[in-house]
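Appendix B. Chain record.
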Amino acid sequence: MASLRLALCAPLVIVASCNDDGSQYTLYRSSVLDAKMRLHVASFDTANGDDYNSENCQIAAGLFANQPGVQVRYWCEKGRFRK
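Structure tokens predicted for this chain:
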């Protein structure tokens, strides 16, 4: 009986864990040594949606970039972190 329950619930777990990149944003920065390097800084993936995540990523990018002495570029990209 336990195996039957597991077999019936497994597809639900898989579907529930599949999340599209529709409302996720990732904050990246370049490197002082290599301006083309993409370094992961933060991910924005709340249930509040696309606009909320995008705005918070942009705010964070601005806060990081406007610190005194910062020599790297910060930017946001839609979607999950990727190298």
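Further analysis of this model is presented in Appendix C.
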